[in-house]
Amino acid sequence: MRVPEELLEVLRQENKFIIASHINPEGDALGSSIALCLALKSIGKEAHVFNTDGVPYLYQFLPSMQLIKTSLDGLPTWQYCLVLVDCNEPDRAGIEDYRFKLNIVVDHHLTRKSFGDVKWIEPESAATGLMIYHIIKDLGIKIDRDMAENLYTAISIDTGTFRYDNTTSEVLRVAAELVDLGADPARVAIRLYESWTYNRFKLLLEMLNTMELIKIKDIKVAFTHITLDMFRQTDTTQADTENFSNFPRMIDEVEVSVMFRQTDDDAWKASMRGKGAVNLALVAASLGGGGHRNAAGFKAEGSLEDLKARLIKSIEDNINQ
Asked: What's the whole-model pTM score?
């Protein structure tokens, strides 16, 4: 993986950075952001990490997670370079109303946007964390234990803990190096998969009880949903749904799993996970979203039944694409 020299030069020459990631952050966004911030600080740069939603309970084990700010108040942002991580448009990070000295984008999502003065978009990368690893290495910065565990978590999440088809030999080599540098695979796995709150588990049960299987041409698609009432009844939030869309995909014959979660009275967010029969990035793009072939999503307004019908049509159009 080759880091653009223009990006490295900006990171070397500039001294003040704000690192931001997308709303409803997961492990790749958070781990990548924290690791880059620690790396820049270690060479004397001023660096801040921003996420409008903060750190969900699931990720509060991340080393140096306290660096993440939920407000930019008091910072003269126009004096700072923005590094937008794991997304490629400012409204995805809730910073569209701010002005920065320079806009940098580091992302691995297939759907490209026009935003950014300096951009490194690498759709073939398994995780943004893998790209941040290469940036840190190419800057000649020594990766310490805290950086290593954040990067390991980032890569682990986006490869399904090395189960997805984006798990390449490079991913495994980098992960092994991060373990040698102090990342603790058992600790990360326990915190990610065996440290749920009881309420989160109740929400999962509620979601699974909504599951319906639909055959679209020759493939089976599993639909689930979570309503605002279900969040209220289980005393949970949107952040508690991370990875929920993966569960129906565990069924052998299911090729695509779709989870709709209600975000407002007439608004929904769809998270899609697949096994390769459908290019979900194309499906999401047709509905105003984006992502990867086997992991994508979109937001839309309307009734749940109407959104399902639109999604079914898009899946039909993109089978074997």
From this structure: 0.93
pLDDT, tens only, 39-89: 999 999 999 999 999 999 999 999 999 999 999 999 999 999 999 999 999
Cβ contacts of 172-180, under 8 Å, gap ≥ 24: 174/130, 174/133, 178/133, 178/143, 178/148, 178/149, 178/151, 178/152, 179/148, 179/152
pLDDT tens across 290-299, in order?
888 999 999 9
Over residues 218-266, the pLDDT tens digits come to 999 999 999 999 999 999 999 999 999 999 999 999 999 999 999 999 9
Q: What are the tens digits of pLDDT across the range 7-23?
A: 999 999 999 999 999 99
3-state secondary structure the chain: CCCCHHHHHHHHHCCEEEEEECCCCCHHHHHHHHHHHHHHHHCCCEEEEECCCCCCHHHCCCCCHHHEECCCCCCCHHHCEEEEECCCCHHHCCCCCCCCCEEEEEECCCCCCCCCCEEEECCCCCCHHHHHHHHHHHCCCCCCHHHHHHHHHHHHHHCCCCCCCCCCHHHHHHHHHHHHCCCCHHHHHHHHHCCCCHHHHHHHHHHHCCCEEEEECCEEEEEEEECHHHHHHHCCCHHHHCCHHHCHHHCCCEEEEEEEEEEECCEEEEEEEECCCECHHHHHHHCCCEECCCEEEEEEECCHHHHHHHHHHHHHHHECC
Q: Structurally, what CATH architecture does the domain formed by 5-193 represent? A: Alpha-Beta Complex (3.90)
**Can you tell me the mean pLDDT for 114-131?**
95
Assigned fold of 201-318: Diaminopimelate Epimerase; Chain A, domain 1 (3.10.310)
**Domain range list for the chain:** 5-193, 201-318
Strand-strand pairing, 16-21 and 81-85: parallel
12 vs 277, higher pLDDT: 12
